[in-house]
Design brief:
With 234 residues, the protein is of the alpha/beta class. The protein contains ten helices and ten strands. The structure holds adenosine-5'-triphosphate. Pfam families: ABC_tran.
């Protein structure tokens, strides 16, 4: 579904992504893991067209590189950005509706889709009229994922959904990713929390200093000594 070949991104003299190649097949959950500054967010921004890059980014055989973010979203690639970025002055329901903005959906469909999100995140249902800006970090993360799902993505990209959240909330978020996965949604999961990411993903890529160091099935990466030592803390 997504095929990136020899991607390069520079910020002035900083060569942030170096010859990265990565694939995500239909229905797969693929994780891109790596520590701070490895170049993960830069890779995501290149896919979504928010920064310019060199190399090929094909989506169902169509070249994305050079196209506008708006076009890319219309094709079904939806990203949940690092740090959530919900609309603070809008309510939960209004935020969810913003997610469906680029679709032509009837009121009945929208109600059904909101109910689906509320089914995934009952906490959001309890707070449907609350301003997003007054919710906890975990609730905002749930809302950001819910808003992305309202766009009916074909490829969902989650940029560090666990960032800044308490372990118990992280567990909840990953449980939801598992449920979404069961429904067959193709997902690219960017994470620093390698152990959580590899517990849900089918395959993983380990990024260091702008390059992919290893890639393998999540199972093999979890049991590989150098990955265990550097990323899994044992
Ligand atoms: P984190 O997990 O901390 O977000 P990351 O793996 O997502 O890290 P990036 O944010 O992609 O890493 O950053 C990769 C490198 O590019 C870093 O050295 C960073 O300082 C640099 N960088 C990122 N954005 C910019 C920018 N707008 N201008 C200059 N350098 C940047």
């Amino acid at each position: 579904m997504l095929q990136i070949r020899d991607l390069n991104v520079s910020y002035g003299s900083i060569h942030a992504v170096r010859g990265l190649s990565l694939q995500v097949g239909a229905g797969e959950v693929v994780t891109l893991i790596g520590s701070n500054g490895a170049g993960k967010s830069t890779t995501v921004n290149a896919i979504c067209g928010t920064i310019s890059s060199q190399g090929s980014i094909q989506y169902n055989g169509k070249e994305l590189n050079g196209r506008s973010t708006h076009d890319i979203v219309k094709d079904g690639i939806v990203m949940v950005p690092e740090g959530r970025k919900v609309f603070p002055k809008l309510s939960v329901v209004q935020n969810l509706l913003m997610g469906a903005f680029s679709r032509k959906a009837s009121k009945a469909e929208l109600t059904q889709d909101i109910d689906f999100v509320f089914g995934l995140f009952p906490r959001l249902a309890e707070r449907k009229s609350q301003f997003a800006g007054t919710m906890s970090g975990g609730e905002q993360q749930m809302l950001a994922i819910g808003r992305a799902l309202m766009a009916k993505p074909k490829l969902l990209i989650l940029d560090e959904p666990s960032m800044g959240l308490a372990p118990i909330v992280v567990k909840d978020i990953f449980e939801t990713i598992r449920i979404i996965k069961k429904q067959g949604l193709t997902t690219l999961l960017i994470e620093q929390n390698a152990s959580m990411a590899l517990s849900v993903a089918d395959r993983g890529y380990v990024m260091e200093h702008g390059e992919i160091r290893f890639h393998d099935t999540a199972h093999n990466l979890r049991t590989q000594d150098n990955v265990k030592k550097a990323y899994l803390g044992h």
